[in-house]
Write a structure and sequence with these properties.
heterodimer; A: 545 residues; mainly alpha; MetI-like fold; globular; B: alpha/beta; D-Maltodextrin-Binding Protein, domain 2; 38% helix
Chain lengths: 545, 353
């Protein structure tokens, strides 16, 4: 075929241009990755993960902004001030008490001669096993308006549903975050400063304020931010105790299918969350302490003297309130349930639904965590950093917001999967992937990049490096992370409530529904089963901190 | 080189994704647009009703027919959920406690007409004109009181009397968004008009000693003597009577005087969803539940009163023909159902706590 010369010229031109663009692009590409771009598949999986994580965030912001000035002003006028007050006061007060209790207990069990301190060290971490909404149920059973106390004494003594009741129950089940992290810091902190302060003649109270506390500051901050983020995202406990925070309000708006109001409230909640994270980082920035690593010397135990009795009582009371009392109440109602035969086929059906959806989520998380973490560590660039940060967003995103984005995504774009377990599983992955990534990250940091290079030199392709070299080495870490995801997903309540397909209630949903209707004999066995399952990854969690 | 390995791994990834979706969608893809109703093996029910009153019925239906029944107890959000899913219908049948909600869905074009003869045993006043929904049991609004605190003579005899300042702090109501409360206020509005209804809400809100989430809270608190009386549906009174403790309670049906408007009767019932994926099973289920035996169970278990007078009522319940009822067909609640929430909110009664 004859081509007109002009056309041929054009063709040549476009070809040259293409080549130029390709060159320019590959130059840009290499630059972006600092000369070390990741394999296609690695990049694809990571980007997909990042995008999936972006769904709830972008949906909420777009829908919230689309809501228009009127809806915003209306909500700012009516609901937002009250919600803001409720949410902030609760978060701040609970975080404060969690720090007081967590820090004091950590100091007692690590630094003093408290009798049985080794046993206390793990006993006092146990409240972490009890989902806070289960804890709330047990306290409602005892102190509620029609609870046991009212049956024994004729009056409930106090209103468990008021602000301080909510603070008390939340604190009991969140202080372990501060406790665990500060315990770990106390174990490995450098004694020199403390001894110097002592040598300078300060009393122990001053030593603590001037030398111990500042060194623990980062650990306390890390624990406190976990507590604050938990309080901000909690739905089950506050709803059970009839206290309305942003998260609860978003849930109720979703019940009315007022997605715009839900999105607007979500935007405010996300801003508050960011504010807390920023404030914590800010206070840390101002104070920087360096300590030379590890003291081989065992820190001398502080003798409590006559304080031993009262402090032992203090630890026992916290343990009693946070572990013994709730477990006893559950055991009582579970035994009632067992004699009534509530552990039937239906119960195991719910258990299977929990197991199936949480299991799927944990498998997917194990699959997704490694590429993201690996890319961040081995192919550092702005892209891998953004993907990594995005993947961590699930940590701070309350389940209700995740659910909001997912309903939209599936209803609009993936209708054939709408109404299936895929929605719940996706929500779990978005929520809990960070837990798996932390584990994968920790495991991967133990593997030297030299190993990758050696494998590449001996002719392995990039994916072979991951599958044949890295994977076997990080598998224990991935599995530990997967176990953590599994347990968190089993306990997850708000997203499951909103997304569960018909006929697929989980144990957490049954606990919620049955307890709301006062059927504790069916709620308690399910709650105990969840608590037992949570023991699986606890060992790993304790050793992590 | 990279392409081929990319392909391999992408296939693996997609495979996993498909496995997940395959496992999770245990039901076959929904069938659409077929003329004959296809035989399916399941039935999806959205329910706003307390699960305890629904599950045993569903179990026996499943046992009799071999159809797998999937229940989603979505509470009051069921209505909005059905609306949200209108382009991607999931539910076959809606179990509602409130005919206002069902008629509202019908007016929105989300229900399917039903000409089954089985519906004829229910008074036309308690079913949709096209048969798309049908009431099964009556829920009458009553004032339940604690006999230790107040006598039958003292208790208000009309709803309007609740606006009297002498009752300030003495009684309980539920939040404005409770479906029974919404329907009741819709009925009052049809009777009284907007202004008088708003005035009633404002004053009652001011007088109420407590505004709580649900009627279960009202009955337990009145039973326990926290307040003298409360506005509830009659079966909450029946339930409180059957408690082991705190059961010294009575109830009066309001507005029974010669020129009184009568008590408001709402109905719980079932509706057939348009575009139901398992329509044949849904129709079968509605016919089945209208059989006398099921009606009896439906009403007995929850202590409501069967709308079919031929079906025996729970002995502690007053039969529906023993008191004066508002003479308004329940269909009339549908058109006002949504705005009434606005009216409630404007009058200062919060929809949610």
């Amino acid at each position: 075929m004859n081509k007109a010369p002009i056309e041929m010229m054009k063709e040549v031109n476009t070809k040259q241009e293409q080549a130029r663009y390709t060159r320019a692009f590959s130059g840009f590409w290499l630059n972006l990755w600092k000369g070390n771009p990741p394999g296609t598949f690695l990049l694809l999986v990571s980007l997909l993960t990042g995008l999936a994580m972006l769904v709830p965030l972008s949906y909420v912001f777009i829908r919230g902004i689309q809501g228009g000035v009127d809806r915003w002003l209306n909500l700012l006028d009516t609901r937002i001030p009250i919600l803001l007050y409720n949410t902030l006061s609760l978060t701040i007060v609970v975080t404060f008490f969690a720090i007081v209790i967590g820090l004091s207990l950590a100091w007692l069990v690590i630094r003093t001669d408290l009798p049985g301190r080794k046993t206390w060290q793990w006993l006092l971490a146990l409240p972490l096993l009890i989902p806070p909404y289960v804890g709330a149920i047990t306290y409602i059973i005892i102190f509620g308006p029609r609870g046991w106390v009212r049956d024994w004494l004729g009056a409930p003594l106090f209103n468990i549903y008021d602000f301080w009741g909510v603070v008390f129950v939340l604190t009991m089940f969140t202080y372990p975050y501060v406790y665990l992290i500060t315990s770990a810091a106390l174990k490995r902190y450098n004694l020199n400063y403390e001894e110097a302060a002592r040598a300078a003649g300060l009393s122990y109270r001053h030593v603590f304020i001037k030398a111990v506390f500042p060194l623990l500051r980062p650990a306390i901050g890390a624990g406190a931010i976990l507590v604050a983020l938990y309080v901000l995202s909690d739905f089950g406990l506050v709803a059970m105790m009839r206290y309305t925070t942003f998260t609860a309000a978003i849930y109720y708006q979703m019940g009315n299918y007022d997605q715009v109001a839900a999105a607007i409230l979500s935007v405010v909640l996300i801003l508050i969350t960011l504010l807390f994270i920023w404030a914590e980082a800010k206070t840390r920035e101002k104070q920087r302490f360096y300590q030379s690593k590890g003291t081989p010397r065992q820190a001398p135990l502080i003798e409590l003297g006559w304080w031993k009795g009262p402090l032992l009582a203090y630890a026992s009371i916290i343990f009693g309130l946070a572990v013994f009392v709730p477990l006893s109440v559950l055991a009582y109602w579970a035994s009632v349930g067992l004699t009534e035969g509530v552990i039937d086929q239906r119960f195991w059906g719910f258990a299977w639904n929990s197991f199936y959806m949480a299991g799927m989520a944990s498998l997917i998380c194990m699959f997704l965590a490694l590429p993201v973490v690996y890319m961040k560590s081995r192919n550092p660039s702005i892209v891998s950093t953004v993907v990594d940060k995005l993947a961590y967003a699930g940590y701070a995103l309350p389940g209700v917001i995740v659910a909001l984005g997912i309903i939209f995504l599936f209803n609009q774009y993936i209708p054939f999967l709408y109404g299936t377990a895929a929605l719940v599983i996706t929500a779990y992955v978005i929520r809990f992937l960070p837990q798996n990534m932390q584990a994968a990250d920790a495991a991967l940091s133990q593997v030297s990049p030299r190993l990758d290079e050696a494998a590449r030199i001996s002719g392995f392709r990039p994916w072979q490096v991951i599958v044949k070299v890295i994977l076997p080495l990080v598998t224990p870490g991935l599995l530990a992370g997967g176990a953590l995801v599994f347990v968190s997903a089993m306990k997850e309540l708000p997203a499951t409530l909103l997304l569960r397909p018909p006929g697929m209630d989980t144990l957490a949903v049954r606990i919620w529904v049955d307890a709301s209707e006062g059927f504790y004999q069916t709620a308690a066995p399910a709650a105990l089963l969840l608590i037992l399952l949570s023991i699986i990854p606890l060992r790993w969690m304790l050793s992590k901190y | 080189m990279k392409k081929s390995l990319g392909k391999v791994l992408a296939t693996a990834f997609l495979g996993t994704a498909l496995l997940v979706s395959g496992c999770s969608s245990s039901q076959p893809a929904t069938t659409t647009g077929s003329d004959a109703l296809e035989e399916t093996k399941e039935l999806v029910i959205y329910s706003a009703r307390n699960e305890r009153f629904v599950q045993p019925l569903l179990d026996s239906f499943a046992e009799e027919t071999g159809i797998e029944v999937k229940l989603l107890s979505a509470g009051e959000s069921s209505v909005n959920r059905i609306m949200e899913e209108k382009n991607n219908v999931q539910a076959d049948v809606f179990f509602s406690n409130d005919t206002g909600a069902m008629e509202y869905l019908r007016l929105e074009g989300l229900l399917q007409g039903n000409t089954s003869q089985a519906l004829n045993i229910i008074d036309p006043m308690y079913r949709a004109e096209d048969g798309s929904w049908v009431g099964l049991s009556a829920r009458t609004r009553v004032l339940m009181y604690n006999k230790d605190l107040i006598s039958e003579e003292e208790i208000p005899k009309t709803l309007w009397e609740l606006t009297d300042p002498k009752w300030a702090g003495e009684f309980m109501i539920t939040r404005g968004g409770n479906s029974s409360m919404v329907a009741h206020i819709a009925a009052l509005r049809a009777e009284w008009g907007d202004e008088k209804t708003k005035e009633w809400i404002e004053k009652v809100r001011g007088n109420a000693g407590a505004v709580v989430n649900g009627h279960g809270d009202v009955r337990r608190s009145v039973g326990a003597g926290e307040f003298k009386f409360g506005l509830v549906n009659n079966y909450y009174f029946h339930q409180q009577l059957s408690e082991d403790k705190d059961n010294n309670v009575g109830a009066i049906y309001p507005d029974q005087g010669a020129d009184g408007m009568g008590a408001f009767v709402n109905a719980a019932g079932v509706a057939l969803i348009k575009g139901a994926p398992n329509e044949a099973n849904a129709r079968k289920f509605i016919d089945w539940i209208l059989e006398a035996e099921q009606q009896k169970f439906f009403a007995y278990e929850s202590m409501e009163v069967p709308l079919n007078p031929a079906v025996e009522a729970n002995p502690i319940a007053m039969r529906i023909d023993e008191y004066k009822v508002m003479d308004m067909p329940l269909q009339e609640l549908g058109p006002v159902w949504v705005d009434v929430k606005k009216l409630i909110e404007e009058a200062g009664l919060d929809l949610d706590l």
